[in-house]
């Protein structure tokens, strides 16, 4: 699908159902949707100091009934599914007011749920009436269009973002506050503006540079702003003209991508070439009849057989099988067995020999 057929990097003003219907089938790589939550708030909410809470009380969040909300949800999710590529995914965020209904409808429409992610707010609004727990989280559902299809998940990039630890599904991030919060005449421009840190994770995790990201409830343009910063294309759909003007101004103020495309490329760990233990014998690094020592212990040793197996007492098998027999639990034989270096006389793990072979061109990936 050529980008020329799509209104990329632009805001489309109007009803999301009508605009979704105008987009081509199978044309979008990723969708992030922050739909109305249908909070159904009754009356104003006041703090103990007698100031009113600026909650979500906008017309776009009001529905006549749960059935009316379900009809709307089914319609826009069906539209999103049509425009998603077969390999595409969607993120939908919500609170306890709506996310369970959204999840059921996603499954009814044959999306396949990959994860639910909990956004744990580090600075949540307290429950001023003291009648419930403080609501300190929102839930994101991540789903693919078609079960079993290949989809984008940049595992190593997310791990790098998380201090080189695998990222979990609980994301501790603050609310959108301070300079990031867009205000008009001192008040919030949009009651449900999401923090850029949240979209940074979503977009980094599930898209690649140059991909097209659609947001059917664009608001003040957080999705577009972060997409531009990460060298992705974006399309925003928004009904309110005032929001569109704020979003366009916000995105226009962001510099374009830097010329070095390595900055945005996702990190992929190269798969290391497989080196069989027998290759150490074929290369002469080890020889039949030589002893290997388990966990560096001189009193626990196995002899190398010409076949590439080890023999420990009456048991023969691979380096992994013999190690498991000794330890009584599975273990990586490359890290368990060591040999005596004939030059230095020191004990070295056999994994170092494997690495030397990988450095030879025959075992390079």
How would you describe this structure to a colleague?
- The structure is a single chain.
- With 365 residues, the chain is α/β, with parallel strands linked by helices.
- The chain has 2 domains: 3-263, Rossmann fold; 278-363.
- Helix content is 27%, strand content 21%.
- The protein has 11 helices and 16 strands.
- The strands form 3 sheets. The chain has an 8-stranded mixed beta sheet with strand order 1-10-9-2-3-5-4-6, with helices on both faces. Strands 14-13-12-11-15-16 form a 6-stranded antiparallel beta sheet.
- Strand 12 (301-304) and strand 13 form a beta hairpin.
- Helix 1 (16-22) runs parallel beside helix 2, helix 2 packs across helix 3 and helix 5 (196-206) packs across helix 6.
- The longest helix is centred in the N-terminal third of the chain and has 18 residues, at 66-83.
- It is elongated and about 80 Å long.
- The two termini are 32 Å apart.
Helices and strands in order:
Layout: E1 10-13, H1 16-22, E2 28-33, H2 66-83, E3 84-94, H3 99-108, E4 112-121, E5 137-144, H4 155-161, E6 170-173, E7 183-184, E8 187-188, H5 196-206, E9 212-215, H6 222-229, E10 233-238, H7 241-252, H8 278-282, E11 291-294, E12 301-304, E13 310-312, E14 315-317, H9 319-327, H10 333-336, E15 337-340, E16 347-349, H11 351-359
Parallel strand pairs: 1-10, 2-3, 2-9, 4-6, 9-10
Antiparallel strand pairs: 3-5, 4-5, 7-8, 11-12, 11-15, 12-13, 13-14, 15-16
């Amino acid at each position: 699908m050529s980008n020329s057929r799509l209104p990329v990097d632009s805001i489309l003003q109007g009803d999301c159902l009508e605009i979704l219907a105008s987009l081509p089938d199978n044309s979008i790589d990723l969708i992030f949707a922050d739909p109305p939550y249908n909070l159904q708030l009754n009356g104003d909410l006041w703090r103990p100091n007698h100031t009113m809470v600026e909650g979500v009380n906008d017309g776009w969040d009001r529905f006549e009934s749960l059935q009316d909300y379900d009809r709307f949800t089914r319609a826009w999710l069906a539209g999103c599914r049509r425009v998603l590529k077969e390999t595409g995914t969607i993120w939908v965020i919500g609170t306890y007011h709506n996310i369970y209904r959204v999840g059921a409808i996603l499954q009814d429409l044959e999306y396949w749920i990959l994860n639910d992610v909990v956004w744990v707010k580090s600075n949540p609004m307290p429950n001023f009436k003291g009648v419930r727990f403080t609501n300190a989280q929102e839930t994101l559902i991540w789903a693919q269009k078609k079960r079993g299809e290949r989809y984008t998940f940049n595992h190593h990039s997310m791990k790098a973002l998380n201090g080189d630890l695998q990222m979990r599904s609980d994301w501790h991030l603050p609310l959108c506050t301070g300079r990031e919060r867009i205000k008009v005449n001192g008040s919030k421009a949009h009651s449900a503006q999401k923090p850029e840190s949240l979209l940074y994770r979503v977009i980094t995790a599930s898209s690649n540079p140059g991909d097209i990201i659609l947001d059917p409830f664009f608001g003040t343009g957080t999705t577009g702003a972060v997409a531009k910063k990460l060298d992705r294309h974006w399309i925003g759909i928004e009904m309110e003209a005032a929001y569109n003007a704020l979003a366009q101004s916000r995105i226009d103020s962001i510099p374009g991508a830097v010329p070095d495309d390595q900055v945005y490329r996702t990190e992929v760990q190269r798969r290391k070439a497989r080196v069989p233990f027998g290759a150490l014998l074929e290369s002469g690094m080890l020889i039949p009849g030589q002893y290997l020592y388990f966990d560096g212990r001189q009193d626990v040793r196995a002899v190398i057989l010409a076949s590439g197996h080890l023999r420990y007492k009456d048991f023969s098998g691979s380096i992994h099988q013999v190690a498991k027999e000794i330890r009584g639990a599975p273990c990586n034989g490359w890290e368990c067995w060591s040999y005596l270096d004939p030059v230095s006389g020191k004990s070295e793990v056999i994994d170092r020999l494997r690495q030397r072979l990988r450095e030879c061109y025959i075992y390079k990936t």
